[in-house]
Amino acid sequence: MATNFYFDHHYNRTEQNLIEDLTIEAIKLYGLDLVYIPLDSQSRDDVLGEDILARFEEKYMIEMYLDTNDAFGGPGDIMAKFGFQIKDTADWVVSKRRFKEVITILDRPREGDLLYFPLSRALFEINFVEHENPFYNLGKLHTYKLTCELFTFNNQEFDTGVAEIDRISTDHSNDVIIDINDNTEIQDESIEEVIDYDEKNPFGSW
Amino acid sequence: MLSKRPFYYNTLRNTVIAFGNLFNEIYIESEGKTIRVPLQYLPKEKFVQRINYRPELDDATVKVETTLPAMGFEMTNVAYDPERKTNKMNALRGNEGKMFNRTSYTADFTLYVGVRKMDEGFRIVEQILPYFTPELIVKIRDKSDYNISTNVPFVLNSSSFEVQAEDDFEERRSILWELQFTAKIYVYPDEQSSTVIRRTIVDIAHMETNFDIETYIAEVSDFEATKDDHTVVETWHLPGDKPSNINIVTRPDELEVTSKKTK
């Protein structure tokens, strides 16, 4: 059975545009400026389905609305298997039209791209892009909802031109983590006092 | 009562260090760079970790969740190993004392390998597995003052990994390798110090009347090392008489003769 054609709730273009304008205005009023950093995947392993070589070299400033306005989500700062971890999550809402205007190289936000939130110096990774929430206001989708988690640094190259973002390669490098974890202590103690490598070193060569 | 005196030989701590040292220098190719995989002993104090990672809360460092790849390990269990038991009375002798035989134990370890990419996990684990067949023997100086170094086998019991790639998109994929090891170690009991007899007292009595005739006391003066000269003070007590002292300086090898004389 067809819907009643005397009531047009889903195809009125002017009404849709009005709602979209109001949405953009609300995000500009109550939102925050973020840096959108697209992932440049230079080499991909198609067997295992993961990037071998990933770079982040471009940046776009765009306004977004933090859906959880009182605090970040997730368990926060925790002690995990590999020491201290910050498991903050956040859902960011961005206008579809504004996204196309600002980030011209992309049709939509992509999972794997990054968002830098300067206010708390947090670097988020987009886990999922929800495009149907809110669900068809007057028959049109106006926003993307980006489900994000703090980024896990994996030695990727950063060359965005923003100094504080690009410094991540040195601030969170493996060498820094090794220093923090007192990794060298294990090595020094064992060689001096504990392990007897006099006769047979299992890691030696011949 | 096990032992009134505290004793501790760092045996378990040394085993932790030896285990950590096995995996301390693993390098892999990641994102076009050669990197060293961080390794740490996991059950550290929380405040230590927190202060190490965030000495300043308001610094200019960009906040990320963590850095991977990374490895961590922990000792999970210590259990008696009856298969390697030897006679308890086989005493161990050191420079200053001796002790009953050491006791065989096993210490279980778990090594965790956290990676962002499956490829990195393969690169790390492939550098570990070839050394364990299924054991790798490491010589540990577990009682250096007794001149004891022990070949400790670290046995790889299992290597498994868990990939959380299902469920919703709230969390990204995580990969965690878990390698279980058992170290066959020994723990040592308390040391029994053996001291020199310095004073002997002999009461000489008449066999028939059982009256005391005289008392002989031999006393060795203080000395620091057994190689030093000793002064033996011999004292004879006759009933009703004042004691008469005779000082004899003797070499250590002569001391034994003097001792015989007192018996």
Kindly state the percentage of residues in helix of chain B.
10-25%
Strand order of the largest sheet of chain A: 1-4-6-9-8-7
Rg of chain A computed from alpha carbons, rounded to a whole number of angstroms: 24 Å
Mean pLDDT of chain A: 83
Distance between the termini of chain A: 84 Å
State the CATH topology of the largest domain in chain B.
Answer: STM4215-like
List low-pLDDT spans of chain B: 254-263
Largest interface: A-B, 69 and 61 residues
- Named at the architecture level, the CATH assignment of the largest domain in chain B is 2-Layer Sandwich
Key descriptive features of the protein:
A: 206 residues, six-stranded antiparallel β-barrel, three-stranded mixed beta sheet, 6 helices, 25% helix, 35% strand, elongated, B: 263 residues, mainly beta, STM4215-like, six-stranded mixed beta sheet, four-stranded antiparallel beta sheet, 4 helices
Report what the structure shows.
- The complex is a heterodimer of chains A (206) and B (263).
- Chain A contains six helices and eleven strands.
- Chain A has helices at 13-30, 96-102, 163-166, 168-171, 174-180, 183-194; strands at residues 32-37, 40-45, 50-56, 60-66, 73-80, 83-95, 114-117, 122-130, 143-150, 152-153, 157-158.
- In chain A, strands 1-4-6-9-8-7 form a six-stranded antiparallel barrel. In chain A, strands 2-3-11 form a three-stranded mixed sheet, with no helix packed on it.
- By secondary structure, chain B is mostly beta strands.
- Chain B has two domains: 11-192, STM4215-like, CATH 3.30.2000; 196-261, no CATH class.
- Chain B has helices at 11-22, 46-53, 118-125, 252-262; strands spanning 27-30, 33-36, 39-41, 66-67, 70-80, 92-93, 97-99, 103-115, 135-143, 148-164, 174-187, 192-193, 199-205, 212-220, 230-237, 244-250.
- Chain B is elongated and about 105 Å long.
- In chain B, 22% of the residues are buried.
- The model of chain B is unreliable at 254-263 (pLDDT under 50).
- The chains are: A alpha+beta (206), B mainly beta (263).
- Chains A and B meet through strand 3, strand 5, strand 6, strand 8 and strand 9 of A and helix 1, strand 2, strand 3, helix 2 and strand 4 of B.
- Strand 10 (152-153) of chain A pairs parallel with strand 4 of chain B, so a sheet runs across the interface.
